[in-house]
Amino acid sequence: MLPHSKKETETGETRVDTETPGSAKGGQEPRVQSVARAVKILMAVAQSENGLKTIEISRKANLPKQATYHLVHTLMTSGMLTHNEQGLHVLGLRIGTLAEAFRRHLSPPQHLTPFVRKIANETGETAYATGWWAGEIVNLTTWRGSNPIQASEVTHGSYIDAHARASGKLLLAFADEETRSHYLAEHALPARTSQTITELSQLHEEFQLIREQGYAVDREEYTIGLHCLAVPIDAGASPYALTISAPTERFKQRFTDFLEIMRHIASDLSGLSK
């Protein structure tokens, strides 16, 4: 066997992925550098507002310019990246195929959906369940409420800026120290609004408060005009959270009712999961 072939065999050693929905584990060392770099490029573009120049990708992904140029070219020819009207690199059509497949494959645990629906029915607000998936926090299922003015529906599988969301803060607060530290090291704390917590020390104080009171609130930290309430399942031992979103004024008026309803339903769900 040629040395090059042998190297490829060793580098491409098959690894069995045992992570499942609800797993907070993630962040294993990548085995193939070029693949890891390509992923960093795609993530940099995905997290940009309107696309990036090649030099901007290099800087944001912390990659050498030459390597970035070649990888971007490969991603362009494979349909993973394309150019917009401004000549910036944006995600290509094939990423849409992957995103749709991800949402299709990301099936929520069957026992969660009826309780999310019950929360929406009893509060009249948009309700959803979030949870850990391979080291990331994702939205698992959403149910629209009956009130005429509703919060925008959270896309299935989509989840960014956990530090600015009630559910994200709650799941981080109740996560083990290693999981929480790794997540925060890998994710920036951008200011979504003037209310967003962007200081790590202040965020840890928020986590302590959440653990003490047993729930988390987003006070226009993600979107102006919107408040959210998240409660844990199994007192935080479960990797899932239940959440509602409501217009600020209605949320303030009905907060006590919302909290009572959600705690009761979370208690029922906790009993079912034991």
UniProtKB/TrEMBL annotation:
One biological process term in Gene Ontology: negative regulation of DNA-templated transcription
Segments for region (Disordered): 1-32
Keywords assigned: DNA-binding, Transcription, Transcription regulation
Residue ranges, compositional bias (Basic and acidic residues): 1-18
Residue span(s) of domain HTH iclR-type: 32-93
Keyword Hydrolase appears in the UniProt entry: no
SMART domains in UniProt: HTH_ICLR
Domain of life: Bacteria
A Pfam family reported for this protein in Swiss-Prot or TrEMBL: IclR_C
Classification via Gene3D superfamilies: 3.30.450.40, Winged helix-like DNA-binding domain superfamily/Winged helix DNA-binding domain (1.10.10.10)
GO MF entries: DNA binding; DNA-binding transcription factor activity
SUPFAM superfamilies in the record: GAF domain-like, Winged helix' DNA-binding domain
Residue ranges constituting the IclR-ED domain according to the UniProt record: 94-274
PROSITE patterns with a match to the protein in the record: HTH_ICLR (PS51077), ICLR_ED (PS51078)
InterPro entries linked to this entry: GAF-like_dom_sf, HTH_MetabolicPath_Reg, Tscrpt_reg_IclR_C, Tscrpt_reg_IclR_N, WH-like_DNA-bd_sf, WH_DNA-bd_sf
The protein's name in its UniProt record: HTH-type transcriptional repressor AllR
Native species: Kineobactrum salinum
